[in-house]
Amino acid sequence: MENIKRWINVGGALLIIIALLTGCNDDFMERYPTTSVTEEVFFSNISDLKTYTDGFYGSLSSPIADIGTDNLAHHNSGSTIDQMMRGGITAQNAAVWNWSSLRNINFFLKNYGKVKNAKVEEVNHYVGIAKFFRARFYIDKINLYHDVPWYGNTLGTADTEALHKKQDSRTLVVDSIMADLEFAVAHIKPDGHKSTVTKWAALAQLAQFALEEGTYRKYHTYLGLKDTYKGFLERAVSASEKIMTEGGFQISKTGGVDRAYRDLFISQNLQANPETILFIDYDKDLNRRRNTHTVLDYEWALSQTLMESYLMKDGSRFTNQADYKTKDVNEIFINRDPRLEQTFMKPGFKPVNAASPHRLKPTLGGYNQIKFYPEVTDMISWEASYTDAFVFRYAEVLLIFAEAKAELGILNNQSDLDKSINLLRARVAMPNMTINEVSGPVDPILKSYYNNVEGGNTGLILEIRRERRVELACEGHRYRDVFRWEVGERLADQQQGMYVKALGPMDVTGDGTVDIAILESAKNTEPISHLTEEQLKNITLYYLKDGNGNNTSIYLENGHQGHIMFTIARDKKKEFVKPKYYYYPIANSEMVLQGSNLVQTLGWE
Q1: Of 40, 94, 267, 306, whose Cβ has the fewest other Cβ atoms within 10 Å?
Q2: Is 330 within the bounds of a domain?
Q3: pTM value?
Q4: Distance (Å, rounded) from C-alpha 455 to C-alpha 439?
């Protein structure tokens, strides 16, 4: 029984499940007294199907940072992948997997056929929603473990053989995921509130997964699946193109060049936004809230390599400038892609609840994130934000279309760029990407960063990856992107924060007045000895060594000047072991359960 509970959570009565789903649904309780609730009477009409599938939406999430990736300079709390790369995760201490949400979905799929006097298309709409969520469940599982057992039915305590079976192949599970998503696309209605799954959300999920699986198979050649990657990329193209031609979505430009991009992520009404495909509807009056103020100087800051990815306003590369590595936090924003200062905090940024501009903390690196940071005072506290959150937005669909075609080698004309990448650039008045431009000399920095990209369209693929990194920064995509492109070593790189020209005082708010100073230690105050008493009173001091002469959490790249770097990254280096660290180990406690036929995850044997 312990094996069953831990694998699929079959314990518990239907009454508990329905109570959780229905909450205060008075109509339900009037029809069926609590003492007589059974699966036979619950699955009797369309309203019951809606009630049950509404319970699946709690699994939706919308990240506000790229934790554990090269988009962050430093994260105080670390991440699972950080622990893994430092040897802190083993099969002995790995978390056990949880299959309870799959059990709930399969329970629905077992019982929906009991509905009476309903149109087939009405029933299939909700079946499609259930299969949409089952596909998402399994996408997460294969991303973690590669091979997992596929369960398409609800299991009971007597199903011993199925409960104890070994993993199914990635091919079988992926084919099953695709079948679920194809059913969802074919049967879920195209209309409806954008906080519910529509045909367009199902197509977006299909396009996203097809791109991920296609590129995963193309670049992870050790899997022996490279010969099958093209079909997935072709489906990514056709699914995204259908959204583009029939979905009626548009890139939002409300707010103009200086506001349109940032406003997407602090909106209280994504239902009205033409870019929204699926969103999570947070609401002040209903007390549905989340944390977004934590993006600013709380746990993390953004990285030098992300900052360098943004182009100049004229479309040229920031990294083409001879002094690009030595520009300080005031200089990096000059003549750049407007998305940079709508994602990174520019000196002079003043939070809505502050009387003066925010002073950055060099201990996190200095490149503060403002994307998602709210502009309403009562949202600037714990679990207080009621800004809506994207699950799928149209910009990602355009990026999927461009990348899939580029990886297939069939993005050969300017019109493909004009109806995808260039719509994103137009929002912020950036010059168009052109076929001639990307057919020219390849950016050597991008080429070294993604050194496994080959072929005549290398420049195109690399520039689309740049655009994807910039447009989707901090939205939780970067981790999967780095993994599917098979460049996990980028996560082991020692990331850098802002450039510091010399120890001593610095103006980090852009007003010409010194705000902070970085000193070697409290004993070495010579760099600030020229400051007036008033200046010293208003300055915030940071040290590279504490009172006992021990290293603090940061150091400078070249001793007394250079980029901010992090002591933990230097003293406890990360190593990305391929292919092992692309996957998570199965906990030993699962492997040794009576009757278990599981085999350990690839690389962890």
Answers
A1: 40
A2: no
A3: 0.94
A4: 11
